[in-house]
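Review form for a predicted model. The reviewer records the input and the model, then writes brief findings.
Reviewer: anonymous (R2)
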Amino acid sequence: MPNYLWKVSYTTAGAKGVAQQGASSRRDAVKHALESLGGKLEAVYFAFGDADVYVIGELPDHQSAAALSLAGNVSEAMTVQTVVLMTPEEFDAATRKEVSFRPPGE
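Model under review:
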């Protein structure tokens, strides 16, 4: 299954919800959401900086990842960015692919 990293930034309403319900409840909600799509939660980290939360998990396909991201973004409690993660072996396979590409100006 493909692996993903979700970067979550809470709005004021979302931050209030976390303050009231606790961070563990958000982890449980994310786990439930991933499992409802046939996926698996690997890790949840709360952070300081560009994002408030980093989630790592796997889902069966990109459509499921987009659905999860969309569900978060339409909630108005957060903004969600999705990053597709690749294993070293997957990236090695990508380096062996022949690409017919002409850069601009050539």
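Findings: The longest strand covers residues 3-10.
Further findings: The first helix runs from residue 12 to 21.
Recommendation: see findings above.
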